[in-house]
Design a protein that fits this description.
Blueprint (H helix, E strand, L loop, with lengths): L1 H14 L6 H7 L1 H17 L3 H15 L2 E2 L4 E2 L4 E2 L6 E2 L4 E2 L4 E2 L4 E3 L12 E2 L4 E2 L4 E3 L3 E2 L4 E2 L4 E2 L8 E3 L4 E3 L1 H13 L4 H4 L5 H33 L19 H10 L1
Parallel strand pairs: 1-4, 2-5, 3-6, 4-7, 5-8, 6-9, 7-10, 8-11, 9-12, 10-13, 12-14
Antiparallel strand pairs: 14-15
Helix pairs in contact: 3-4
Amino acid sequence: MFSRIREDIACILERDPAARSGWEVFWCYPGLHALIIQRRAHWLWRRGFTTLARFVSHLGRWLTGIEIHPGAQFGRRVFIDHGMGVVIGEMAEIHDDVTIYQGVTLGGTTLVKGAKRHPTLARGVVVGANACVLGGFTVGEGARIGSGAVVTKAVPPGATAVGNPARIIEASSEQIREAAASKMGFSAYAVTQGDDPVAQALKGLIDSAAGHEHQVALLWAAIKQLQAAQAGAPDCVPADAQAEEHFDAEQLKQLVKSS
């Protein structure tokens, strides 16, 4: 038990820059207190003392403002930061190294008894403040749930879910977009973070421009290859044909400034 508490304190010191000492974390962090109480309640729950387990979890809710059903399962190094208003349902599974902020709900969308009603958070998931994750699906390893998001479907590993209802932003698509934008001399991350409508329009513009540039370059390259294969064929490729990908980054930057 004491080794788990020391491990919990160490992970809080690592993730929270406001934490100054282990003693401060031990006495003043309700998220740590809630997890200690939940382990006792879960121990009782698994041994059939369900009413006593619910009473212990109720005391924990009264002391910390964090409501965790004793049937919920927790891994190691879970950090509930601030924690006020957090609600975690009976069949929720929280794996190692998960971080949960205040106001989060891990709830269900069905009343069928015995069904997997509450979500599973895989290793390294971060759930932002006031987010709701509702249903018996899995949030993949390393995924991020944005503050205020309402998630009702599975989130792939490494992806980000934002908005209400949540939209899934794949990590791979963001990396591809940034690579294309960097090749064009334009930083996607500098202007397109967040849910701003202008930012979303710029993301679409970058994706569309990169696709068009690539297709045009391929077409002219194919025409040149055909001409090379046909001896004596007239040269129909203009001198200014775009055989390589190019993008006017300055024009896009001016567009961003004017918006």
